[in-house]
Design brief:
- The chain has 287 residues and is of the alpha+beta class.
- The chain folds into two domains: 3-69, SH3 type barrels (Roll); 134-286, no CATH class.
- It contains four helices and 16 strands.
- The strands form three sheets. The chain has a nine-stranded mixed β-sheet. The protein has a five-stranded antiparallel β-sheet with strand order 4-3-2-1-5, with no helix packed on it.
- Strand 6 (134-143) and strand 7 form a beta hairpin.
């Protein structure tokens, strides 16, 4: 190539086509032409690989170009693509974090709801167990005509303060005297009217056996005891057991001891542990 053409291209970005002797194909080097050394026969080219020399004798053609359009644009588009890929990766990670957080929050909410329901149920049952139940407010005995044995014992019962509905059908009475008797509710032994001779002359108490107890209503404003066997707060009744049936004898002798429990379906149970007087002066005995 002529000298005047080489010098004109110094400082410009060019595509330099070279072909070494013996090569079948030419190669292209893109870069800025820095200097031309005619004496030694080399040109200095600053390309992407760095500063290098090419022999002038191998140069076939030189085509000037726009460095910004060819190199800078390629770099710029590459950087844009690179940022785009990074943005997509960040978005994927962010979405994954949001999904994990949502799942964790759902699990926590469901767990807290289950724990809340269980805590509420346990608290309600605990309050019901502690505050509710049946209470014994008086105990009296009733002897036979000869006043030698206590034949019946009556317990004045009523729901405890704070107690709800008390189901008499599910109340169990245990009596301990030489053996253990378990008495249950009998709908045929519920009397809503006190007899003219008193509580122990209401109905047919002689029909009480060693498996059942009788109920004599004292106060029942809504008639719930007779209709549904349920005692509301304020209801009062006598629960009567037949000691002659439960002991298998004529009844309880003086100085005899009897104990037991009145166990409701829910709530606190009522205990009794009574000792008969040494002498029976009247048929009605306050125990």
């Amino acid at each position: 190539m002529e000298k005047k053409y080489m010098e004109r291209l110094i400082g410009k970005y060019c595509k330099i086509v070279t072909k070494e002797p013996g090569d079948k194909r030419a190669s292209v080097v893109s870069g800025t032409l820095e200097d031309v050394d005619y004496k030694d026969g080399f040109i200095l080219v600053n390309s992407q690989q760095g500063l290098g020399c090419l022999r002038i004798s191998t140069v076939i053609a030189i085509k000037p170009g726009n460095k910004r359009n060819i190199l800078s644009e390629n770099k710029k588009s590459f950087k844009k693509d690179e940022k785009g890929m990074m943005g997509i990766g960040t978005l994927i990670i962010f979405i994954a974090m949001v999904l994990v957080a949502a799942v964790a929050a759902t699990v926590l909410i469901q767990t807290s709801q289950v724990l809340q329901q269980k805590a509420y149920r346990v608290g309600t049952e605990t309050i019901e167990e502690v505050a509710s139940g049946v209470g014994i407010y008086d105990i009296v005995g009733y002897t036979n005509k000869n006043e030698t044995h206590v034949q019946y014992i009556g317990f004045v019962i009523s729901p405890r303060a704070g107690s709800g509905y008390l189901d008499l059908e599910n109340i169990v009475v245990t009596v301990k005297y030489e053996n253990l008797s378990v008495l249950k509710y009998d709908a045929n032994q519920v009397y809503t009217t006190i007899g003219s001779g008193g509580v122990f002359n209401s109905g047919n108490l002689s029909a009480i056996d060693d498996l059942t107890y009788a109920i004599v209503v004292i106060h029942d404003a809504d008639n719930s005891i007779f209709e549904t066997a349920g005692m509301n707060l304020g209801d009062t009744a006598y629960l009567i057991i037949n000691t002659s049936a439960t002991t298998g004898s004529l009844g309880l002798l003086p100085r005899s001891e009897i104990s037991g429990k009145i166990i409701p379906e829910n709530g606190a149970e009522a205990l009794f542990d009574q000792t008969m007087p040494c002498v029976f002066v009247n048929r009605i005995i306050d125990l």
